[in-house]
Amino acid sequence: MKRPLDGGPAGDDPTFAGAEVEPDSTDPHDRPPVAEDDPQLEPVGIDTHCHLFLIEGDPGDVVASARAAGVGRLVCVGIDPESSRRSAELAQSFRGVFATAGVHPHTASEFDRPAGAVIEELLADRLVVGVGETGLDYYRRLSPVEDQQRAFRTHIALSRETGKPLVVHVREAWEDALAILDAEGADRVVLHCFSGDAAIAREARARGYFVSFAANVTYPNATQLLQAAAEIGPDHLLAETDSPCLPPRSLRGRPNSPANLPSVAEALAEARGVTSEETLRSTAEAARAVFEFHR
Ligand SMILES: [Zn+2]
Ligand SMILES: [Zn+2]
User: Fold this and answer.
1) Å from CA of 260 to ligand 1 middle
2) By three-state DSSP, how is residue 48 classified?
3) Which of 123, 142, 226, 250 is placed for a possible disulfide with 271 were both Cys, Cβ 3.0 to 4.6 Å?
4) Which ligand number lies closest to the CA of residue 52?
5) Terminal CA-to-CA distance of the chain, rounded, Å?
């Protein structure tokens, strides 16, 4: 007797009997409950790097679109004292938004004592979950290398003092960046918008760094990047949009937003031979492991 449902309200539906064994892939109990938030209401994806203050339009709408696209949390990354303060305010205003405080390598020359004092003050806020973005950009070199290195070292010290992870931007400066991270004893490190090759990814893995990939993994020339992604275990692999920069391939020429995170997950998933859903979930787990999302 395979179908004992004849006569019942669903008796004419032969699929009904299978309902109880249908896999429920969205079961929130698969995940540990998060802080004081209700995990049942939380879309799974986490965008670990965006600049909400640079995205046009109402930030509330941007956050709502992200939620509708399955992205429940986003880390709004500061690039100078003013935008770091703005990020902290946005975190205060919108559920699911968290901030970081720091000075971008592009403007490292402006990282003086007063700027440092603002960053330090903001880091006392529990919604400010990371230090940065900081790092080295020898590609654009908008600040002299010595200023970039000095600011980078100070950010590493702040990360060590506060225990908050360091959000690191590196472009064409891998040798120096890895040397400084090592010399200064950086221990909670997120390499954002990763642009290195497989060998650098292996070094990052050996050091226990978290490695975050942006939507350039969707571009046609992403082969080397995807090989690098394959070197990182799921527990240290993060996904970000870096919005409004770097829109995914399908949206090139238009501004990017956190709602596009699933495109990044999809490209990573394809290269790693897993599903997009699994990637969205594992990158969110890794994000929770490195950032402390208290509300
Ligand atoms: Zn960056
Ligand atoms: Zn950025």
Assistant:
1) 17
2) strand
3) 226
4) 2
5) 53
In this prediction, residue 4 carries a pLDDT of: 35
Which residues have CB under 8 Å from 284's CB, separation 6+? 44, 45, 46, 73
Q: Residue 168: name the closest of 139, 189, 197, 141 by CA.
A: 189
Q: Are 199 and 231 in contact (CB under 8 A)?
A: no
CA-angle at 98, arms to 95 and 99, nearest 5°? 145
Where does 42-291 sit in CATH, by number? 3.20.20.140
User: What average pLDDT does range 204-220 have in this prediction?
Assistant: 96
The rounded Å distance from CA 253 to ligand 1 centre is: 19
Q: Which ligand is nearest to the CA of 130?
A: 2
- For residue 277, count other CB atoms closer than 10 A to its CB: 17
Q: How far is the CA of 128 from the centre of ligand 2 (A)?
A: 15
What are the extents of the domains in the chain? Answer: 42-291
Query: Which of 3, 37, 45 has the alpha carbon at shortest distance from 276?
Result: 45
The pTM is what? Answer: 0.86
**Is residue 8 scored above 90 in pLDDT?**
no
